[in-house]
Amino acid sequence: MSKNKFYVTTPIYYPSGIPHIGTSYTTIAADVVARYKRLQGYDVMFTTGTDEHGQKIETSALKEGKLPQKYVDEIVEHFKNLWNLLGISYNKFVRTTDLSHKKSVQKIFKKLYNSGKIYKGKYKGWYCTPDEAFFTDTQLVDGKCPDCGREVTWAEEEAYFFKLSEYADKLLEYYENHPNFIQPESRKNEMIQFIKSGLDDLCVSRTSFNWGIPVDFDDKHIVYVWLDALTNYITSQGYASDNETDFYKYWPADVHFVGKEILRFHVIIWPAILMALGLPLPKQVFAHGWILFGDGSKMSKSRGNIIDPVILSERYGVDALRYFLMREFSFSSDGIFTNEALINRINFDLANDLGNLLSRTVAMVDKYFGKALPESQKEGAIDNELINFAINLRKEYEIKMDNYKFSSALSNVWLLISKCNKYIDETMPWKLSKDPNKKDRLARVMYNLCECLRIISILITPFMPDTSKKIQDQIGAHKHKCTWKLASEWGILPYNLEIQKGDSLFPRIDVKKELEELNKMVENNAKIAANEFKAKNEEAAENVVRLIDIEDFAKIKLIAAKIIECEPIKKSKKLLKLTVDDGQGERTVVSGISQYYTPEELIGKSIILVSNLKPAKLCGVESNGMILAATCPENKVKVIFVDEEIPAGSKIC
């Protein structure tokens, strides 16, 4: 009999910067579900990846003097390295620059166009480059982007549009017939109201930049983010390719995990695209809350409060971080991150409760029985209370996990841990060990604790896979003793189990000392981040494109000129002194291109000259004009040459 299938996804992340705790939160949650379903015996498909196209990526790459592909390649490596560090067990990592994805997207675009779901038109509106979003006049705030507060530019361009407006009623009907499609329930009404306020057709192509997937039947256009990024959930499984086996095997997805800020795209635009393609919709989209900070603020580079998961993992351990993120926050709501909360979870939950239970149990078995437990008598009433709770725990845990209530599921496991620690206090093994007639009773107590630890190790596997294995190794539980089925059965460990003492799972942390160190790190990071943020904003402000009138442009006089002489300026490593013929005589122009051209390469060339620029002295030489050049990738500068047959003095228009 074939296994049940389960398909879980994260959103594909925008590689505009190094991944942080927010992206880690979503990805760890998806990994927990994937591991949980595999534990249950499901055939799991788990995908994550990166959304690598768009104007913002192209602009950021050019600012760093890199080609866009090289720029995203470097950032994607950070994502992959972090997921490897955090033990993310994804099956496929999707990159929208992958050739297979590109080809599938082109086929999808053409299919929608041929079926009349996409048409060509013209887009007019305000455009925010950092957010890659269009806005109407009424949506702007003080004439600026309502999301980031930065300058917007007016954009008019030919574009293809997807007929999103046709799907309003169909989406509302789908929500009504599939009440669990949007989760948590609290977010559904917002989406319904958004649809009822009216859906506009969706711009799905661009012509104003080049970094994207070309529309293969109209190469002036590139496919815009909606079709490029959202379709990753099916292109990753081979849809619209020569091999669609995985698509028919795993689609529809069981759950898309997304942050609440991108829910609208996943429950309005994405389902409408699938309907247009005649494909089934994902079974559920779950929009989790944000991780906020102690003052209620979101993560911000300028504030220095973007928590680095690499630093936290190296400082406290990967499993400790995974546990904290899944236990501290309700997945459906916003949560507050503080250093105190993290340290307290490690000290109390992991070191005191779980770590102490394991070390006490293993140490006592080793001390009283020399590593191997003998067969012992049947349980008493106090034992049965503990045993019944342990073997019934899986049922409650499963209900919580199936509804993505990770914190509650872990809370239930910790109830068993608490009961075990209480059981030790009540049975007092150290007292039993002093009475030769109670050796058998002591063995039973130790066995019960080991069995509980076995069940605990199974149920924490999705959250803390390394810790689970360490527990099983120390109590002598072989892998086949720790299956999902056996998590609700008792008496699985052999009576002669062999204990293997190990290191402490989670050493306690000196809270005061640790907080002082962490606060210093945050302060330093805030200063560094604020300076970087200010510098980038100033650079961005300098590069904002502001529209000018034709009258303003007419003030600039561009003419063809011919370089007659050229020589270095002795006081400078960058400047060249050019003597040019401007059609009416000779003039001197100074240009900072000596590291890109030798004088011999320039003499005799015809160039474009800004001829009405005010004179300026550079290193003692008066410059009367400016030659035009282009900044290319890798910080190279190329002078713009013109046909040598164009006479000097010809107007450039």
Description of the structure:
The protein has 653 residues and is an alpha/beta fold. Among the domains are: 338-547, Isoleucyl-tRNA Synthetase, Domain 1, CATH 1.10.730; 553-639, Beta Barrel (OB fold (Dihydrolipoamide Acetyltransferase, E2P)). Helices cover 43% and strands 17% of the residues. The strands form 7 sheets. It has a 6-stranded parallel beta sheet with strand order 3-2-1-12-13-7, sandwiched between helices. A 5-stranded antiparallel beta sheet has the order 18-17-16-19-22. Helix 10 (263-277) links the parallel strand 12 and strand 13. Helix 5 packs antiparallel against helix 6 (188-196), helix 11 (309-316) crosses helix 12 and helix 14 (381-402) packs parallel to helix 17. The radius of gyration is 32 Å and the shape is elongated. The protein starts with a strand and ends in a 14-residue tail after the last strand. The relative contact order is 0.09. Mean pLDDT is 89; it is low at 301-306 and 540-546.
